[in-house]
Amino acid sequence: MKKIESIKKPNFLKKLFIKLCRIIGFEIIDQSNLYLPTSDKLANKNLSKLGVNNISIPLGEIKITRPVKSLDLIIKTCTSVNLVTQSKKRVFEKEKSEYTFRTINSVINSLNFNKDGLKKIKIKIYIIDYNSKKEDKEKIKKKLVAENLDYEIIDLNIDKFNQIKTLNKNNPIIEKNMKATMASILTSFKIAKEKSEDLVYFIEDDYIHKKESIFEIISSYEKISSQLDKELFICPVDYPYLYKKLENSNIFVGNKYHWRTVNECLLTFLTSKQVIDKYYGDLLNMSENEHTPFETPLHKIFEKELCISPIPSLAMHCTNVNSIFGLSPNINWNKIWEDNEK
After folding, report:
1. Cβ within 8 Å of residue 306, ≥6 positions away
2. Which ranges constitute the DSSP H helices of the chain?
3. Residue 313 gets which letter from DSSP?
4. N or C: which end of the chain has fewer CB within 10 A?
5. Nearest Cα residue to 221 out of 14, 34, 66, 17
6. CA nearest neighbour of 78 among 124, 136, 125, 126
7. Strand, helix or coil at 113?
């Protein structure tokens, strides 16, 4: 526990009052130093307990009526293809495998960032891999084993996905890459449908996360879902392209971040098993029949369901630096990249 030099020891009556507040569930704050004696924390620390309550100063406490029970992270990997439909280089100009490794590193680092806070949530990682080198898959496996994580690696055989229909691009290589991408997406939805119990986080292997991202996403999901009494979609990225449109947004206070409603996102997002079941047919349609834009069926779901994204971004999408689908504004891109090298 931190040492707080400026906090005076409470007298006998104050100690009794603090104990009474703890017993009856009241939170008190000393505004002279923003110290909460009942929690033994400063006000800028995490005051919330997953599954119990969410506390924001000065907004107060939200009782969690929609606790998260489990989280499946489904990561789609391919270290052999740089960009599915482009020949441009990604930001930092590294081999594709480096983005995959750092994505997985960032997820692991984020799970470890608040391990105690997440300990009551059942967590499993699924890796859906297409055409990665054997040594790359071994490296991924070693990372997961070293952290003692519950995981499963699925090797994709795209010859088994004859139902997938891609658009004609007059380029067999691009069309094959797109089919592999769609097969991976389809497999991720089937895993969520058949194996998941609660929250599902679909992650592409070029999204590098901040260390606080997973705890913030889960705690904000609990808080906002409890307030609205409805399930959500959560996009972890503050995409620059969404600022090109003049659209109204509602703003929510999450755990430590602000969140705004959005009408679009790409294919890294979190939602619940309940939502997957409700819109499973639409999700299958998106993954079996290529649309323009690809995410059109997902965006139609957002006309009926709430999707929110953080301000600022909780993850960095590592595409080309000039892409409006890439680097989010007002975050330290170099730091996120460097923090997740290992």
Report:
1. 228, 230, 232, 233, 261
2. 12-24, 96-113, 115-118, 134-146, 172-195, 213-228, 273-278, 280-288, 296-301, 333-339
3. -
4. N
5. 66
6. 136
7. helix
The ranges assigned to domains in the chain are: 12-45, 70-339
How far is the C-alpha of 219 from the C-alpha of 229, rounded, in Å? 15
Output the six-digit token pair for 176.
């094959």
pTM: 0.90
Distance CA 86, CA 72 (A): 30
Please state the rounded mean pLDDT for residues 304-310.
Answer: 98
Superfamily of domain 70-339: Spore Coat Polysaccharide Biosynthesis Protein SpsA; Chain A (3.90.550.10)
Q: Which of 218, 197, 39 is nearest to 114 (CA)?
A: 218
Task: State both tokens at 242.
Answer: 């969404």
Q: Angle at CA 152, nearest 5°, toward 198 and 66?
A: 10
| Amino acid identity for residue 50 in this structure | L
For 194-231, how does the pLDDT look when each residue is reduced to its tens digit (9 = 90+)? 999 999 999 999 999 999 999 999 999 999 999 999 99
Whether 143 contacts 104, CB under 8 Å: yes
